[in-house]
Specification:
Layout (H helix, E strand, L loop, with lengths): L1 H32 L5 H30 L1
Amino acid sequence: MAASRNLLQLSFVIHAVVYAAVIGGLVYINQATSSQHNWAGIVAWAWGIGLAAHGAVWVMLRKGSSKAR
């Protein structure tokens, strides 16, 4: 069970790092090409919901496993 918790934590960290890198790049591209329209913010918001859900699953499983001990 500990291995699966560590794997879930690692997958969340990787997801967060990729999110930050991609959104940072999209914001740069957005500002360089069409600063009148904030389409990068829409992508950040939508992907952020998925990242938050991933984080919520990680937190819930981590709390649930500590109660089982």
